[in-house]
Amino acid sequence: MIRYFIFAVLLFFSCGKKKEECTKPETNSNKFEMYQMSEMSLLMEQMYADNERLKQRILSGEKIGEFPQHFLKIHKAVMTDKQENDTFFKQHAKQFIESQELIYKQPNQAKEFFNKSIDECVACHEVKCGGPILRIKKLYIK
After folding, report:
1. pLDDT given at position 1
2. Which of the 8 DSSP states describes residue 61?
3. pLDDT, tens digit (0-9, with 9 covering 90-100), for 94-125
């Protein structure tokens, strides 16, 4: 009796395993394609990191430093979709840069201008690329 039970259990599990193997999807290629970020995506990642550090300097009352000149690449960096570099984007990029520059020119109002620059990021991303909005909003100084 026990032999039949063990045999039935083994038969059940071996059949289940073959069924899984048969339904396993076939792939045509073993290649792994890595996503390459556009110039604009890389620039925005750098600007995000720079703004995280700037936020900490503002909060701690440290010297703010100098405006990062690489931010100006926002006007020429190649986007993933080149059509996205339209009038809407250009206007928000211009306003973002103006707000960022004011942080360094008027450090006594740094928090206000910092948050205004983050407003520009959010406003643009609400229309262009919504993915990073929650992450961007973490930059706000409360």
Report:
1. 56
2. T
3. 999 999 999 999 999 999 999 999 999 999 99
d(CA 67, CA 34): 33
CB-based contact 80:42 (threshold 8 Å): no
Q: Which amino acid is at 105?
A: K
CA 89 to each of CA 20, 30, 101: distance values in angstroms, whole numbers, following the listed order: 50, 39, 18
> Cβ(84)–Cβ(128) under 8 Å?
yes
In contact, 114 and 54? CB cutoff 8 Å? yes
More confident residue, 115 or 22: 115
Cα separation, 99 vs 110, in Å, equals 9
Give, in order, the Cα–Cα distances in Å from 75 to each of 35, 81, 118, 129, 140.
23, 14, 17, 17, 23
Residue with tokens 């960022």: 100
Mean pLDDT for all residues in the chain? 84
